[in-house]
Amino acid sequence: MILVKSPLYLAAGLALAWLASAHAQVLEMYRWTDDQGIVHFTNGLREIPEQFRPYATLIRSAEARPAPPPSDKASIQFQKRGDLIVVKAMLNGKLPASFVVDTGASYTTISEAAAREAGIQLGDNPQVLSFHTANGMIQAPLASVGSMEVGGLEVKNVTVAVHDVFPDPAIAGLLGLNFLSQFRLDIDSRAGLLNLEKK
Predict the structure, then answer these.
(1) What are residue 139's DSSP bridge partners?
(2) What are the contacts of 162-166 at 24+ separation with CB within 8 A?
(3) Where are the domains of the chain?
(4) DSSP secondary structure, 184-195, as one string
(5) What string of H, E and C letters represents the secondary structure of 90-119?
(6) What single-letter DSSP state applies at residue 69?
(7) Domain 73-198 sits in CATH 3.30.420.40
(8) What's the rounded Cα separation, in Å, for the pair 177 and 64?
């Protein structure tokens, strides 16, 4: 309970300070004045003497709600480059990059330049795999991206093949099934949207 004599603005200021520091699950505050003219602020009606309860004023009543959980759905506007669908992604929370959506690719691939900028390390003896591409067979070392986001939906520790698949430096690589398989996927060609929902 807070006891405050006039002026009333001082009492209101203390009440606001009390509210700011409250950690109760339900915040409820009443203002009332006793028979000596002293203004009181309490966080429950039961703390007010019964004879003063009819004159008490409810200042605030609000439930302290936790932050909403992150969304498990996203609709991402994509760009068309010929027959290719290109979306924006965020690598390691710091590097925005464009990827071609490729549901036929087992692994996500990333260019050497984008890997360097995102701080992706190959290590001393990385595993090397062979991949079939439109331009023939390639060999590429594997690395791990700590965090990869598309439309705010994040997948951690994504294995990527580091290789310059595209000659266009504006395209960082392919968004493959090891990322996409974490979601239910729908492509709305008419609206130009890639719809993802976490499984």
Answers:
(1) 130
(2) 162/109, 162/110, 162/111, 162/112, 162/115, 162/120, 162/122, 163/109, 163/110, 163/111, 163/112, 163/131, 163/138, 164/111, 164/112, 164/113, 165/109, 165/111, 165/133, 165/138, 166/100, 166/111
(3) 2-63, 73-198
(4) EEEEETTTTEEE
(5) EECCCEEEEEEECCCCCCEEECHHHHHHCC
(6) P
(7) no
(8) 40
Residue 198, pLDDT > 90, answer yes
Residues 6+ apart with CB under 8 A from 61: 26, 27, 28, 29
3-state helix, strand, coil in the chain (%, to 5): 15, 45, 35
The answer to whether 18 and 10 have CB atoms below 8 angstroms apart is: no
| pLDDT in the model for residue 69 | 59
| Tokens 């490729």 belong to residue | 102
pLDDT at site 181: 96
Question: How many Å apart are CA 63 and CA 25, to the nearest integer?
Answer: 6
The whole-model pTM stands at 0.64
pLDDT per residue as tens digits for the range 107-146: 999 999 999 999 998 888 889 988 877 677 889 999 999 9
